[in-house]
User: Fold this.
Amino acid sequence: MLKRAQALFLSSLGVIFALVYAGNASADSAPSQLNMPQGVTEVSQAAYDIHMIMMWICTVIGIAVFGFMFYVMYAHRKSRGAVAENFHENVLVELLWTIVPAVILIVMAIPATSALLKVYDTENADIDIQVTGYQWNWQYEYLGEGVKFMSNLRTSNDEIQGKEPKGEHYLREVDNPLVLPVGKKVRFLITGNDVIHSWWVPDFGVKRDAIPGLFTSAWAKTDKVGTYVGECTELCGKGHAFMPVVVEVKEQAEYDQWLADKKAAAAEYASTIGKEWSFDELMVKGEEVYNRSCAGCHGVNGEGGYGPALKDSAVALGAADVHISAVVDGIGVLMPSFDAQLSEVEIAAVVHYERNAWGNDVGDITQPIDVVNYKQGK
Amino acid sequence: MAHGPATLADGWVKYASRWLFTTNHKDIGTLYLWFSFAMFILGGAFAMIIRAELFQPGMQLIQPEFFNQMTTMHGLVMVFGAIMPAFVGLANWLIPMMIGAPDMALPRMNNLSFWILPFAFAILVATLFMEGGGPNFGWTFYAPLSTTYAPDTVNYFIFGVHIMGASSIMGSINIIATVMNMRAPGMTYMKMPMFVWTWLITAFLLVAVMPVLAGAVTMMLMDINFGTSFFDAAGGGDPVLFQHVFWFFGHPEVYIIILPAFGVVSQIIPTFSRKPLFGYSSMVYATASIAFMSFIVWAHHMFTVGMPIAGELYFMYATMLIAVPTGVKVFNWITTMYKGALTFETPMLFSIAFVILFTFGGFTGLMLSIAAADIQYHDTYFVVAHFHYVMVAGAVFSGTAAVYYWLPKWCGKMYSETMGKVQFWIAFIGFNITFMPQHFLGLAGMPRRYADYGLQFADWNMVSSIGAFMYGAAQLLFLFNVVRTITHGKPVDKPEVWEGAEGLEWTVPTPAPYHTFEKPPQVK
Assistant:
């Protein structure tokens, strides 16, 4: 009866496994990875090597110990007529199985120590990059270069919530990846802005906690061009699973070009966003943006049409933040979000224009920095 | 002087009063065991929600906010509500009977230490229904996620932890006092059953570290409500300090959980091998050295916080050393079986599975001790797999073994061996289907506490969830088997119950009378 139940049970297990595999055996799916990646840096290779050494040592000991145990369970069963002996001590054996494992551990400690020394070898870096963890994205700052940007998850909420099919790079894609040159030693200075995060790139063997108020450091140097994906590994709130790390390692020339573009963009950004705009400059810029993007629905003079009137409207005469939010986030189904279409300068200008044109006379000035602050505060 | 306990026949008031006001170690042991089983089912339900959500990539059933509350509550309820009270329940039932004492040394405190527990957990679980939700910062509650960024309900959590700590401290003091003062004549320390030894050492660990936990949550309370900055760098504090304090409690805590489990297995394996425990004295010394070492290895949970390399090397070496005494214990168990006359009743099956799976968890523990490799393992599913091998296949399997082993002594009825064995195989296979793939997930790069994951992790997560549902089903069968034993079990009246069972608890009648050893036995 019992034997039959067990057999039934085991065969049903087989069926479950077969179903799982059939279910996932779509054409492009590679077999699931089972082991630690070897990675592309000295540190990741060292971690992999020591991992494999430990695993093999444990496997050998495990086979010996469990093998003996299974032999005992088979040979000394009462049902085979075994009669218990009564020994319960043996000083020699007990000493041996204390000393031998201790010796094995000392041998293990040697490669373990040299691997750890590699992890800590952060001196003499070519490039310093500050990595800052935010709830829930990463900021990368190329120290001394004036380049700094946020890296956000690109997977859409609809994919996460199952309203759209999941893309190939589901939860492994960002808008602005970290870019590194090949063959250069890069030092990461890692910190957190709010709670503790942890910055992990498995292929680099780099995992360091991003702790607010403290800096930790790690390093990577690779000769392999490619895209490497990592994760946040310290619980940091509801977005913990949604702030991946994506690193692109490029040839030096490509990297230089990328960095130059970033610098130019940063300069442009600073000259427009950082700049304090005057009332009239914003009115001119705002009218241009309004006529291009808003007048179609709200009317050339804010009188309304397909959309509601803005002249004398509650939004245009109310708090600036609410007004900015309407443009950045949209309202309901009909008013779309203009976040992606308009720059911060354009959004600030159009909000300013709407608050001060056609007889609307709030009189305040909406600067690009207000839009930036609104977006960051969100 | 001896009077029988009130039963339902005496009316509800008397019956309820019996349990509320009881100072009898057996009654209190029973209360602890049922309470811990209820918590085990509750914590298990949380785990089922987690595994159901992780069955597929994407958010299907719950949202990340609630997912984080589930992982947190699962950990807290299982550690503080299920496993610890289960072993305190076993200690209450068994330690007086094993050392020939009439009861625990401090019976009224015993009552108090149990009866504050349900309130602690009522407070903790109630937060799930409050505005802001329950604790969502993981059972390790790292600051500042658990302070500045925590929901307001964190104050209830802190209060709950304080009460649990008080309960544990009282329970431990009671066990220490009992073992030191109430042993029967002739019961010297080195004659005590292994279960008593492991619990004595555990009790010292508890008395040492529960105040540290209380200190950690009190500092949190001050940071949150009274403007201090223990864990806030902006005010001159240090978030890493929290982790040092927490793990100074937390590492001994995992030995607090596993040492009594060692004790249980050291009782059961000799019985069903019909042979005395091999290396009794080395077992005692190994337990004591594991307990000592648990105090000096805490920062191996923090290999990625950026400690100086000297600190990291020290904690790595110290952690590796724990393998020595732990290995001694495993070798002793196996040698106890060697040249015995083995039978495989349900408690023995669970104990053998304990030895195999705990050792497996020990191997991954040894791998985790290697700091350079731990940088890759840290906070991934590899760690989740590791500690479930030692906590579930360790503590929970041994707890299950203990219930089957002593249940006939407790209630005078024999459980259904067939059902026990079926439960064992479902639990054993389900457990491995759940947690073995989590090693692969972790090595392949899936972090723990993730509400959602990339498509490359889909296969093994699905397998793991299927295993989890199996394992969960096995626990319902366990509950059914125990209840059915109490109501319909075949009566047993032999004092020793098991052929080959040694120890004072097997010399009293079966079922154990309400009061035992009113006259101390003479131990030779």
